[in-house]
Design brief:
The complex is a heterotrimer of chains A (about 120), B (about 90) and C (about 850).
Chain A lengths: L15 E5 L7 E4 L2 E5 L10 E4 L4 E6 L2 H4 L10 E5 L3 E8 L2 E7 L3 H14 L1
Antiparallel strand pairs in A: 1-3, 1-4, 2-3, 5-8, 6-7, 7-8
Chain B lengths: L3 E4 L3 E4 L4 E5 L10 H9 L7 E7 L7 E7 L5 E5 L11
Antiparallel strand pairs in B: 1-2, 3-4, 4-5, 5-6
Chain C lengths: L11 E10 L2 E7 L3 H7 L6 E2 L6 E2 L12 E4 L2 E5 L10 E3 L14 H6 L19 H11 L16 E12 L3 H9 L4 E4 L10 E3 L3 E2 L7 E6 L2 E12 L3 E3 L12 E2 L1 H11 L6 E5 L1 H4 L2 H7 L2 E6 L5 E6 L2 E7 L2 E4 L2 E4 L3 E3 L2 H6 L2 E5 L4 E5 L5 E3 L24 E3 L4 E2 H9 L5 H8 L12 H12 L3 H4 L13 H5 L12 H6 L3 E5 L2 E6 L3 H10 L2 E4 L4 E6 L3 H8 L11 E8 L5 E11 L2 E6 L4 H15 L4 E4 L4 E7 L3 H5 L17 E6 L2 E6 L8 E7 L3 H10 L3 E2 L2 H10 L45 E7 L8 E4 L2 E12 L4 E8 L9 E6 L2 E8 L14
Parallel strand pairs in C: 1-7, 8-9, 8-13, 9-10, 13-25, 15-21, 16-17, 16-21, 30-40
Antiparallel strand pairs in C: 1-2, 3-4, 5-6, 5-7, 11-12, 12-13, 14-22, 18-19, 19-20, 23-24, 26-27, 28-29, 30-36, 31-34, 31-35, 32-33, 33-34, 36-39, 37-38, 38-39, 41-44, 41-46, 42-43, 42-45, 43-44, 45-46
The chains are: A alpha+beta (about 120), B mainly beta (about 90), C alpha+beta (about 850).
Chain lengths: ~120, ~90, ~850
Amino acid sequence: MTRLSFLSPVSPSLRILEVRCGVPDGSIPIGPDRALVVGDTAANLDGYRVYDMSAALVAIEVESEALLQRVTELTEFPAAGSILRGVPAVIEPRGSGFRLFVPQELSQYAAETIDRLRSAL
Amino acid sequence: MSFLLTCPHCGSRPVDEFHFQGEVTRRPGPGASLRELTDYVYFRDNVAGLQREWWYHRKGCKTWFVAERDTRTNDVLRTLIPAPTGVAAPQ
Amino acid sequence: MRLRSQPTERIDRSRPITFSYAGREVTGFAGDTVGSALYAAGRRVFSRSFKYHRPRGLVCCSGHCPNCMMTVDGVPNVRVCVEPLQPDIDVRDQNVLGSADRDLLGIVDKVGGPFTPVGFYYRTMIRPRRAWPLYEKVLRNLAGLGRVDETANGHGHYDTVHRRVDVLVVGGGPAGRAAARDAEGEVLLVDDRGGHEAPYEVLAPATALAIYEGGLVPVALGNILYRIRAERIVVATGALEQPLLFAGNDLVGVMLPEAFRRMVDEWALQPGERAVLVGDAAAGLKLQLARAGVEIAAVSPVPTSLSAQGRKGRLRSVELDGVRIDCDLLVVSGGLQPAYSLLAQAGARIEYEPRRGIFVPTELPDGVEVVGAAAGEIEQVPAPAVLDGHGDKCFVCICEDVTTKDVKRALREGFDSIELAKRYTTVTMGPCQGKLCQLASTRLLARETDTDESAIGTTTARPPWRPIELGLLAGPHHEPAKLTPLHDRHEALGAEVIWTGAWRRAFQYGDPAAEVRAVHESLGLIDVSTLGKVLVEGPGAAELLDRLYPNRFSDLKPGRIRYGVLTSDGGRIMDDGTVARLDDELFYVTTTSTGSEGVVEWFEWWNAIWGYDAEIVNVTGALAAMNLAGPDAREALAPLTHADLASDSFRYLDAKEITVAGVPCLALRIGFVGELGYELHCPATDAGRLWDALVADGATPFGLEAQRVLRLEKGHVIVGQDTDSESNLVSARMQWTIKDDKFDFVGKLAVPHLDVREKLVGFTTDVLPPEGAQVVRDGRIAGRVTSARFSERVGGAIGLAWVDPDSAEEGAAISIRVDGSAHPAAVTLAPFYDPEGALLRS
């Protein structure tokens, strides 16, 4: 872990770490040697560079494929790609639905838009 | 424009997930003349045919890679992450 | 009036449906279209034509031609011949003054002709030029299609759905259905008629609008746009029945065989009482003719001469090879033409095949196939271009009212290729988009220029296949605004919020002058969370930064901050910010708000080329930032933190990790706004708590406008405001940042060649100039103002401007043009307020 205390939220609702220099087991790959580690993890992160992104990203649930098809063109998961109007997101399958990690500054737009699309279904 | 581009890491994605940086150019060495600098900054080959160009997966994995694309048809022959040229200055 | 029950009828006579047409109540049945219900109720004239306002009736019953377009529930240009009937809809005529039956604008047909030949608007109504708005208004009211209700805020909600399939079949006729059955993988079939039962997925009634690169096919189904990507696209769009060209060919009562077939088979309608049938496809309607009880006056293959006569636009007789025959129905067939449009869009070559007189698609690109009649699986003899015969107008294009006379005139005027003739006459440019007139116009041009159809060719096929609403393409409403973690605090304070790029920012909280005063006299607080923030970490971090910037950072001590400005390799200023060294191998870089993503991409690109061992991490969204500034800043901060804030412990340009109000922060002592200040960077989720504590402690929130004034008082440049794409470090008087002894950096190549035709200076004056105001010298433009504000502290108007190098001297006199007159101003090179920076360093 880097000693960047000013990066780590005091009490995050969900711990999200961006890991560089490799893709540890159980993480979500987001690049050739980058990954997201979500939640409390037992994974050994020695040897990786780790940055706390718990405050940077917000998780949004999309419960069905039908709704996801209105949100993004992506079809294979997990994936880092574009949703809605050019919002970069990381999407992982979760249960029978999906979980999307979006930048916090765009999270209000994303959540409101997904709500509206859901009600039109 | 709706062609699909194959990111070396993520696979086939719609082109609007990417940022196009332009032709791969050759950076002049130190002491370049004004003409050499101007050519490098402003002039491009702009071939009607196979072009080597930089792309960035802006909405995805944020990887910089090079594509070889036929500018007449938008067929992309291959995409690759080039090895760094190294930290010495160009000659 | 209906025929007795037909074996294949789609109507359910036990379920009547009432609706309104032109204000009167009409009844039809479930399964009717609006058009078939109107026809059953006696309607024969369905619209008035685009230019001449001629009466028009049903011709195709397939949604191809424009003749049945009406306005339904306020939505214009609805093709009622295929529009399913719904209860209580309000249907009205369009493009008429009066009604379809009695259109006062029909006078245009009687007398307008000589005044409105093809291309008349290129030759008349040119002078006087100022009368054009009037001419335009008159013309727009005389011609056109339906009217959009400008008061309605859209016609409902539109959605976009993305799909990826293995095989997409366009067209649900026999060939399409067979292709879908035999295909492997995930199959989707699209058809414009509903009622399919199939083992594969069907979207219907839906229209495939186009084929784009990457196997993308947009499909419209109601208010939903399906964006479908398919590995294989099978086009089975069939062939389109073609009309014949002869005098009187647009009269009500002239129709294509498919219209006759559907009217009888599907809606139990009698298309006429006494019929003439021309062309061999027409002869294939014997069954329907018998069922409809229509008297057959004549049956003929395509004759040498044919003309139709009518009264008030309705067919009364035809003259067939010299013989006059009374009739009220003329079914004509000019043969079939493969529907190739989607294939042409995909890049297929469209070739004329003279034996059968059709254009066929060839050389299909990978991933696109064609089956059935669309591929040219048709047997027929080519129809002639035009049939001889006496009479009035012979229409090539009924959508745009283009006659054979218009096309011949265009040729005489020199518009002799199909593309030129199309643009000049507007043939094929109407709602049918060439379905009924592309082949005919090519044949006509070939005949008139004595060349082959293959030499003439076709015009470029373009999307969409049928007209669609813009709302469908736009999809649901989106407003992707970036909000800072403190957005709700600004709203609660009643801030005026503005756009800067994609961000929403607080511009002011009611009194920007008071906000400026608060910062100078006591304490202010501004949300600067939009700043780009980047961590650069690793053994190669220092060298990487040395190479990206003109500045040197490798000698920056841990815990210290330095201003950094980025240039391109051409030496142009791109962005600026601060670089704080937190450790030997760890740097914290800030950028401008709108430049953050671009700077990260720039860093990552250069490092992809060089390969320094360093991680570049964009933490812009992870951290909030707020600037606490004013003479009371230290006193206000002290009770909230254990950190030693004494002036020689926490010096100007120090960076320290401290905890404030229980929130972990990186505190940067920098001075953008000119007073003692601490820029606090903390986790985004804890920003509210920190802000609240500082405000409770007496800080006055200040916004962008106040910040602009404060920074201007210090002469601080804003990249993109005071600099543009040509500005370089020497002309911007920031030469001191260039450490040219470094072996390489981005922009080093340009240093010997930098252009210094102008310099960025400060100025004072008494009248506030607008941004962009001209600096004049000896009556000529010598520069421009980039920023200007009135400063209470300085006691006058201050600003930044580009001036010629000779004027870039302390105290030089320049003139600035305000409201047409030149006002004197004095150049100031030092900051206007606290030039020594004593307050910053206190």
